[in-house]
Write a structure and sequence with these properties.
heterodimer; A: alpha+beta; globular; disordered C terminus; B: about 400 residues; alpha+beta; Rossmann fold; Dna Ligase, domain 1; 4-stranded parallel sheet
């Protein structure tokens, strides 16, 4: 291979011997005391690197994956908790110039492959989760998969071999076509929830487009289903179908007659409402027609009579928002604008003036800097924030918490956008202009500027513009309110939730866990009460009026407890099949999840609106641990059927409640099986 | 976390100095232990629940008895030095713990290279020519005298002499001087030093565990190039001297009156099979020889150390613990100390032929922190070790030698 080598030719690598050495080094690590493990890691890493540089090396490492993890190779790193790993970060790790970073990432991928193939039963990740994660990893690293190497790989030198070997090995065992097809399915599933943050989806679609354009990449018949996705970003109309670039498109617009422009407008609108994605060409088009062809705007936004009516009433405002906030980079704001108009919220007296303020808002340096760090300098930060405001008001259930433990803040933003839009706009103004939000906790002012710190040590940048600016403040206030509750008996959410979310959150509070012991506490009474408050059959057929904060015990696919999570109950109603369902908002970025024991959270097909998650009421109740209610509106707890109650309770015992039975319950109720 | 389960019937040992490998070995062994180390080790010990007593090992002074008393009150039976700097502390502490004042004098002897040579001479052990130097003038005089003795004429290339600090471990401060000009390069603060004539011969080291005044295990470490590489066990070429070497070590034990513990002497064997004593240390050797021994034989040398020091160790335990020398070795384990060969380096790159060699085990080299490599004056400190393991001692020897011609930093 290398003629410059001295006469002493490099010996052929003996993979079997390396495998034995790896075995030894793992044993040393296993037998090591925890305080001395760090020193035993470098030989293991080095051997893994040498093995993975060989084309057949991946199988050897995969076979040792379980031992490697148990021996502690991931201890103390993010990789120790595979459930929190983000597929989008793998690209950086696999292209890193740091050997250890590449090796540990490769190790983690191979470990998850072992999990996905069910040769390794992992305590915190199921085979399906691992499979799902790896599919995304492959999707994001399609370049590596098809050997399309670039500057990053050249810089890496021999390390790039490892990344390629691993990605290709994973693909071989997950299936190439399967990868792209399931990726497309995945993209549609996510888009169906209409998230505000679509950067990740855009990236995946772009990758598929690149791969399809690559003559050397043999995809077979896979990826044909991606047409609509790719065109929605890169060529939704006849005028831009071959992705000519916005400059050329701009010139074409100038020579189009009115019929052609009309066609373009409908083409854009159809594509946008089809996928929820907005093409940059769409933004160019809208800015163009605003000067002299504005009669096409309603068409270009795809508005119904409600939206059109709203547009007519607030024409000046809408034009200003477009001029200030919609550019090819922020095109996504058009979708928010269209839905905002359809919601009719501009008719609420304070909303239009608040949006006028928003259009001209002076940003404080801190907010400006965060927006610039996340989105760049073009267009300016104010425009990104307008885009964010349009999206959050148009898609209140599309807010996600990103990779942050700030579900409460995301939930609050979503709740206000849904229910109290002018209050949300007030929050945005305070945070973006004044860099301070003041809320009141039982009459006492709580300032985000003077708080000691929030729940999250640092709020990341993978957020929509509004969250990016407001969440750091909300999180600190939330943390501060929690501190003000220190010393009170019971769960602090009892006091914090209503004060934090607003007057419409019920002052009544029910919890089924004893805070001191973590054991279940009056489960039956809790469920009866929930049914009486929320189930139309037991509460006098009263639909839920205001969205209510609630807490759920999240479980994984194997129904094992993962953690407590904040959600919003939006409505309780019969689904198309006639089953009573709870429709709720989950601030985590993807609501479609399996919680084990046949509890699959639906996001479409059961009467969900965009962004809603849903479960049959019985299943929902089995994961609920906190809810709020109006103490003055009592339903009929006694009417709840005994059988239904039992089923819910059994579901609790089978999942997160398994180890939470108080001692006397254990005696009173021997295990069902016996 | 310390997970130790110790045997209360056996001794309680104190490890003097901080060595993670030693601590781990102790933690996995059945003797109760405590680490005596400077206070910078405290946080780590606390975090991991490692038994610990803080002590700063500076020069012995009137406060030194405090640590001995502390350990005595704790019920410690013996202290074990892990580094050259803690050898005299171990002597002082053990003389209190065991009520044997002689141990302190013995430790002082083992700490001073000039004193130890004289003692060896008195015991009838052959040593080279040596002298103490207090300034540069002494060095030049010694260099001339040695070469006169060798019947060299003016203009003949000189035989070199070796300069060593009195009380430092191994190669630290070790210089080779050939011409009077080179004497100028020695900083004044290095004096006084010990000067030795150069012996043309084969230098090797011995590790001997001693119990009840008898050798419990004797290893011969073969140096391929001094300061660069070592491997265990030695080649048959060197092992054929084993009986003779054993005799020399027994002489050493007798001369220094060593009853228990561990010694690490260095010798020269000349072409006529004469052994010359170089020096001896009463602590584990550098260059990770303990780790090499574990790789080659499978026993933990630190645990052997604890056994050899513990006064409650029985002969049966010793017999059961140590393997049969050479015969029981599973292979040959060696390591090579890397020094950058270029003046300017930018990155670490393990040569492909090294990495792909079937004997190659692992390395502990780290990427360079600075681009310019400081010129080596004395036998300096290497940048990290590369480990090898294989079945053939001669392949091992040649492989280690060959590494000297390769660039690990480019």
């Amino acid at each position: 291979m290398n003629d410059q080598q001295s006469g002493n030719a490099a010996p052929v690598v003996n993979l079997e011997k390396l495998a034995i050495k790896l075995d030894d080094s793992i044993r040393v690590l296993e037998e090591s005391r925890s305080f001395a493990k760090l020193g035993k890691l470098p030989p293991v890493f080095d051997l893994v690197r040498r093995i993975l540089q060989q084309p057949e090396g991946c199988a050897i490492v995969e076979a040792q994956a379980e031992r490697l993890e148990n021996a502690g190779v991931f201890a103390g790193t993010d990789w120790a908790e595979p459930a929190i790993l983000l597929p989008s970060l793998t690209t950086y790790a696999l292209q890193s110039k740091n050997t250890d970073t590449v090796v540990i990432e490769a190790l983690s991928e191979l470990r998850l492959l072992a999990v996905a193939r069910s040769t390794y039963s992992h305590p915190s990740v199921s085979a399906e989760q691992a499979h799902h994660y790896l599919t995304q990893v492959l999707a994001i690293n399609l370049g590596l998969l098809f050997g399309m190497t670039g500057e990053a790989e050249r810089e890496q030198g021999k390390l790039a071999l490892i990344s390629q070997h691993v990605v290709q090995y994973v693909a071989q065992h997950i299936g190439y076509e399967h990868v792209i097809d399931s990726l497309i399915e995945e993209i549609w599933r996510i888009l169906q929830q209409r998230p505000i943050q679509v950067a990740g989806v855009r990236k995946m679609i772009t990758q598929i487009a690149i791969c399809r354009a690559e003559p050397d990449a043999d995809l077979g018949s896979a990826g044909r289903g991606a047409d609509r996705l790719i065109s929605s970003l890169y060529g939704p109309t006849r005028g831009c179908s071959e992705d000519p670039g916005t400059v050329v498109y701009q010139q074409r617009l100038e020579s189009m007659d009115s019929q052609t422009l009309q066609n373009e407008a409908t083409g854009f609108a159809r594509s946008m409402h089809d996928t929820g994605l907005v093409s940059p060409y769409h933004a160019s088009f809208v800015r163009y027609i605003l000067e002299g062809q504005d009669n096409l705007l309603s068409e270009a936004l795809g508005l119904s009579s409600t939206g059109r009516d709203c547009l007519m009433c607030y024409r000046e405002l809408v034009y200003t928002l477009i001029t200030e906030g919609i550019f090819p980079e922020t095109a996504q704001g058009l979708y928010g604008l269209a839905l905002l108009l359809e919601r009719g919220i501009l008719y609420q007296p304070p909303v239009a003036p608040a949006l006028w303020r928003q259009a001209r808002l002076n940003l404080c340096p801190q907010a400006r800097e965060r927006l610039q760090l996340a989105y760049g300098y073009q267009p300016q930060a104010g425009a990104w924030l307008i885009q964010g405001v349009l999206n959050i008001l148009g898609q209140p259930l599309g807010v996600g918490q990103g990779n942050n433990p700030t579900c409460q803040s995301a939930r609050a933003l979503s709740m206000w956008a849904y229910n109290d839009p002018d209050y949300l706009l007030q929050m945005v103004a305070w945070a973006a202009r004044d860099n301070e939000i003041v809320m009141h906790f039982e009459g006492q002012p709580v300032s985000s500027a003077q708080s000691l710190g929030g729940v999250a040590s640092e709020v990341t940048f993978d957020l929509d513009p509004v969250s990016l600016v407001v969440v750091p403040h909300l999180d600190r206030i939330y943390g501060e309110m929690g501190r003000l509750c220190i010393g009170r008996e019971g769960d602090p959410h009892r006091w914090v939730n209503p004060e934090f979310h607003g007057w419409s959150a019920g002052r009544g509070f029910a919890i089924n866990v004893d805070v001191a012991t973590g054991n279940l506490d009056d489960l039956e009474g809790f469920i009866r009460h929930f049914y009486a408050s929320y189930h139309p059959y037991y509460n006098g057929n009263q639909p839920l009026i205001h969205p209510q904060p609630a807490g759920i015990a999240v479980t994984d696919r194997a129904a094992r407890f993962i953690g407590w999570h904040a959600i919003t109950i939006l409505r309780v109603a019969l689904d198309p099949e006639g089953e009573m369902r709870v429709y709720f908002y989950n601030p985590n970025n993807d609501s479609g999840q399996s919680w084990g024991d046949d509890v699959h959270v639906g996001t479409e097909g059961c009467g969900e609106r965009f962004g809603e998650a849903s479960l049959p009421l019985e299943q929902f109740a089995s994961r609920l641990y906190i809810f709020h209610y109006d103490p003055l509106e009592r339903g009929e707890p006694a009417d709840v059927g005994e059988e239904e109650l039992q089923r819910v309770m059994e579901r609790v015992y089978r999942s997160w409640g398994e180890n939470r039975l108080p001692a006397q319950d254990l005696q009173a109720e021997p295990p069902q099986a016996e | 976390m310390s997970e130790q389960e110790y045997n209360p019937e056996k001794g309680y040992v104190a490890l003097l100095g901080w060595s993670l490998n030693a601590v781990e070995a102790a933690d996995k062994f059945d003797r109760r232990y405590v680490v005596v180390a400077p206070d910078w080790a405290e946080a780590y010990c606390k975090e991991h629940d490692i038994p610990y007593v803080p002590w700063n090992f500076e020069r012995l002074n009137d406060r030194s008895v405090e640590i001995a008393q502390t350990l005595k009150d704790m019920g410690v039976d013996v202290s074990i030095p892990l580094f050259e700097e803690t050898v005299e502390w171990a002597g002082a502490i053990n003389s209190v713990l065991m009520d044997k004042p002689r141990l302190f004098g013995q430790a002082m002897l083992l700490r001073d290279k000039a004193l130890m040579k004289r003692r060896a001479q008195l015991g009838g052990i052959r040593v080279g020519i040596f002298e103490e130097a207090h300034d540069k003038g002494d060095v030049i005089r010694f260099l001339k005298r040695v070469n006169q003795t060798l019947l060299k004429l003016d203009g003949d290339p000189n035989d070199p002499i070796h300069l060593k600090a009195f009380d430092k471990a191994g190669c630290l401060g070790h210089r080779v001087i050939r011409t009077p000009d080179e004497v100028d390069s020695i900083p004044d603060e290095e004096f006084p030093v010990l000067m030795e004539s150069h012996l043309d011969g084969w230098e090797f080291a011995v590790e001997a565990w001693i119990h009840n005044g008898k050798i419990a295990f004797l290893n011969i470490s073969e140096y391929v190039t001094l300061g660069y590489s070592v491997f265990v066990p030695a080649t048959p070429d060197l092992e054929k001297y084993r009986d003779q070497i054993r005799g020399e070590i027994e002489k050493l034990i007798k001369t220094f009156d060593i009853d228990f513990g561990f010694i690490h002497p260095e010798y020269f064997v000349t072409s006529d099979s004469t052994m010359y004593f170089g020096e001896v240390a009463y602590r584990p050797p550098g260059f990770k020889v303990f780790e090499l021994l574990e790789k080659a034989y499978g026993f933990n040398a630190y645990q052997g150390l604890i056994l050899a020091f513990d006064p409650k160790t029985t002969q049966e335990e010793i017999k059961a613990f140590f393997p049969k020398e050479v015969e029981d070795a599973k292979g040959y384990a060696g390591c090579f100390g890397v020094y950058p060969r270029r003046r300017v380096v930018s990155k670490l790159e393990i040569p492909e032929e090294t990495e792909n060699h079937e004997y190659f085990e692992s390395h502990e080299l780290t990427p360079p922190v600075e681009e310019t490599v400081t010129k080596r004056t004395a036998f300096g400190t290497h940048w990290g070790l590369v480990y090898f393991f294989g079945e053939d001692p001669y392949v091992m020897r040649d492989l280690l030698k060959h590494q000297e011609d390769l660039d690990f930093y480019v």
